[in-house]
Design goal:
421 residues, alpha/beta, Purple Acid Phosphatase, chain A, domain 2, 3 domains, six-stranded mixed beta sheet, 15 strands
Amino acid sequence: MFKFIHAADIHLDSALHGLERYEGAPVDEIRSATRRAFDNLIELAINEGVEFVLLAGDLYDGDWKDYNTGLYFMERMGRLRDADIRVFMVAGNHDAASQITKQLRLPDNVTVFATRAPEQVVLDDLNVAIVGQGFATRAVTDDLSQAYPQGDPQHFNIGLLHTCLDGKPGHEPYAPCTINGLRSKGYQYWALGHVHKREEVSRDPWMVFPGNIQGRHIRETGPKGCTLVTVESDEIVEVEHRDLDVMRWSVCELDVSTSETLDEVYEQVREGLQSALDVAEGRPVAVRLVLQGACSAHSALHADREHWVQEYRALATGLGGAGIWLEKVSIKTKPSVSVDEVLERDDALSGLLRAVRDMELNASALDELANEVSLLRQKLPAEMLGGDDPYDPTNPELLKDTLEDIKELLVHRLLSTEQGA
């Protein structure tokens, strides 16, 4: 019996996006998160006594800023060498041969597979054959798996491949291949990389995307880690996910339609944030808070949106524990007052309501409005304009969403005025 670890998409020294701009955010923890998650991988390999570790691409996050990234990786590989653990890796699109200009000689327990053609390594002591091919350039659009050799019936065969498989939303279509194509090779395990969400694509044979080891932004929510595989008599007897991440990302969507007052909404937010903290199991957690549903507090929430955003940030800060920070607060509530009856009337108010609800921005109006807010855009900090969730006030889609918010607020206030008269 032996064990091995399959990990991918480490993205060493990649920044975590969406938190650093906020007061009180754990900047040091954010910057070191990928290294600390990788340290957890090293500890797991040693503690489990695995025979080898497979790294299925994107070890790095592009070219090194300096040699510290390479030196860090070298030291961790040295720890595995001291524990008699071998490492086999392929280059992915982020660490392709064309991307990494700085190089260091790796310890002799590390094998990096070739990029020009598939390469096979046979571990005679384990009766294992590992085949892999890395990316020579960032954008590989050929099906690399087609050139992989047929599996040897006398060995336990592993294919190491960085691929989008048959296409995954949000991921570049690199090294595409098919499940049937991989299955036809006769391998017992396909160690895949590139897709950041864990997925067991097939169990006959095993084809696994372990996901990345540390979420880096709000689109990478939930537990992150690696896959631990146990083999006995050339048969896979166990495949299990192991958490490695040191910080979690979570989307907290709350339907506040049952909350009658701002205090009740606040309490619902408190419970939602506490739940996100509990699910993170002692890790710091970054949360995107989304309030939705038709509620009585809609007008007050939208009228003083910035105040409530800061109230909820303060609430998160005060929860304690390992730490929880709001990456973003999105208030998408709607008024609870029905407007259908008023719209059907034939009076001044109904006419005004219809005019408000029918407001649209044509292309010309959008261009004119975008020009008017362009000066605002120039005053925004660079971190708000870039990253994975940029804020650009000149964006036509954002302008349309803002108009919808204004329309909802105007309708609710007009109705509230009539009811209070």
